[in-house]
Request: fold
Amino acid sequence: MTDPYRDPIRAAARDWAMRVADPAFADWEAFADWLEADPQHNVAYEAALAADAEIAAWFVAAPPRPILAQPTVRRPRRLIWGGGAVAAGLAVVLGWSALDAGSDPYAIETAPGQRRQIALSDGSRIDLNGGSRIVLDDDSPRLAALERGEALFTVRHDAADPFVVTAGPSRLVDVGTVFNVVRTDRSTRVTVSEGAVVYNPDSEAVRLDPGKALFADDAAANVRVSAVAPEAVGAWTARRLVYSGTAIEDVAADLARNLGVAIAVEGAGTAPFTGTIAIDGDPAAILDRTAPLLGLSAQRKGEGWVLTSRNRVRP
Reply:
């Protein structure tokens, strides 16, 4: 019989398994690069973990190992990615009350201006926009929590096991769907291009079919439903932002998320915006040509930008 640890891949997997188990381990980027280099690396790594678990079972009566007493970072579990490096998505594990106590959630974050595409094990896909954070769990692949930012969900429908997205107090259940969700610290926006989504099925139970948009303010009792062009849903993935009667503050937040720069709006009374903004190119050039469309002027302020009414004199 061949010694499995004479196989360089298995030997490396065993080494990584031991290193990741160390509470002081911090070399996540190198670990992610190794996993991405060859599909067999993940297979071998999982086999090494299984072997560890089997050995640990022999010593079930032994005192617990120190790592179990105070873990601060958990390893990523079978992350399946597309369109980006695994290293950018590795994150510390956090509690998530919507999941079972035995689950193992992990967070994926993007910086402003950065994007990630996540392929889930059930065949669904999530496009994560800049400045966003989403929590997933391999043990609950049909559940996602968008904590902030924007994500486009392309969901494989399963009537017996619906895909559920939580965003703040909002709960969205798919009915075979492509839909976009934006979560801020005060509101949730949902737009649907295919299939349907049911918003808060246990309370408002608002069904959103293709071409429908919903805005929910956390502080308001009612939600607002409007029309949207289906082709506009998730248009940010094609470097376009499409609006119909959208508040300037929301447009500015979208621009900041996509361009990777801080954008503030000063002054009030600007009319909602309807139109399309191309976001492919230099942020400064984009803001210079976009501000007049919004009835505003764009000026640099520190490391970011401020959009101000052209009729307002700034001190």
